[in-house]
Amino acid sequence: MVLVIIAIMMGAVLRSDKVVDEGRMQRMALDYAAVASAVQAYVQWYHFFPGDDPKAQERWPEVVNGNGDGVIDAESPEERQAWLHLVSAHLLLSGAMTENSRMHLWHHVAGLSGIALCVEDVLPLLASGFDHHLDDGDGRAGRIRRLDLSSGGYRDARLPWPVEGEGVTVCSSLGII
Question: Which of 3, 65, 142, 177 could lock onto 135 through a cystine, CB 3.0 to 4.6 A?
């Protein structure tokens, strides 16, 4: 009788873990969709990528202009300013992104063309499930890819998804070139 009760309890715990993981994947998908919509709207309204906008300071004096070259450079102030441009345009909530955020808007990373949203320190199982659910399940191909940030700044090291270990960086093409 005790073994039956333990088996039932274990089944309930394992089932709840799956529900939590599904919820995390849904949240990640919603975050990606919200940022993609915000960037798309910014480009349509202002004709520049957020962060790269050379006229942003005319509209919002508290932000810094970008250089207008059509690229958000990963190691430049444009990458940090992108979030402030989106918040200033009322396309994202002010608390949604911070300067210490794990989310980044980068061009031409992990072999993706155009702009991509990259999220650092995602649990490997969650990253793999996210890719399987929304793309091809291969961290080296498709529109969702794994990015290796540990290779001395080299941002095109596409690797397969690990099943366990430390968090990984997931990049997804926003479909905006």
Answer: 142
